[in-house]
Amino acid sequence: MSAPLDPAALQVLIARLTGIATEMGAVLARSAFSPNIKERHDHSAALFTPAGELLVQAEHIPVHLGSMPASVAAVIERFGSDTDGWQRLRGVGADGQVVLNDPFVGGTHLNDITVVAPCVVDDRLVGWVANRAHHADVGGAAPGSMPADAVEVFAEGLRIPPVVLTDEVRALLCANSRTPDERLGDLDAQIGANRRGVERLAELAAAPLEEVLAHGERRMRAALSALPDGSWGFEDVVDSFGPRPEQQVETRVTVEVRVEGDELTFDLTGSDPQRVGNVNAVRPVTVSAAIYALRCALPADLPANGGALRAVTVLTEPGTIVDARAPAAVGAGNVEVSQRVADVCLGALAQVVPGQLGAASQGTMNNLLV
After folding, report:
1. pTM for the full predicted model
2. CA distance linking residue 53 with residue 36, whole number of Å
């Protein structure tokens, strides 16, 4: 076993890995066709260990990055793990890529398409690279694939479980979009970004990647140990869940934050049931918002990796507005419920670290559908 990295060498390794994710994002933005990605930069990129733990991420979209581990986990569950060697990953191939957007299998909402690729060196799985991008239209009842009056996910567009990205899958996606050429261009940009990530990660195949995660875990546990033990609660409401009069009903989002030694729990199990409308969030979105709030409350230089998340638990109740089950519509969960989850988590954390967090925002992303 090689000697552990000294602090300077560890920081150099983290910087090199982070640079790979950042470069992936640059390739994606420069190559994309749509303003969503090229100009608005609604995309994210990250690297993962062979087991699917977040290794590093670029400074992109929080709701993407916090939920992308669920996408990689879904890919591993579907195609196998590297427990018995690379050959266990059935059907992907060393140069293959997997695509998905299913909100109930690792996705967020249907517009966010994730592409995941393995990095293989000398028949050994080194890790995974992944990127997620918001596609302007993936079909459904309305242009833009976020119909405000949707009550089931089927109205929101094409739903893709984890599948190998083939020419046939690309054709299927384009056939279900009102802007097929743009979809094809954006998808090609995602493929290119992953190829660059695989190429760069392969150069670090011999690096002790576990040390990156161990460093993140140590830093997070030290930061949590500095907080007082106890329990703090906060709640707020989502004003409505659709345009019809019967949908103008408040839905509670509630959280209890518990600190016990060097571990922290967000308990959102008291939130109200999911609604017959599109203002529902799947669990990965809720986890993203909670982790974002925690990072706001802790030192800014804490590593953002799976090791740091080992000390944090997010509890949700399936079938609620923060952990919606199929076939719920979820288009606005990604952009509205996430904001309210962040608000309530920040409200609870403000009691843990008084005077260190800002006041609540208006709790919306101000989406305009025309």
Report:
1. 0.94
2. 28
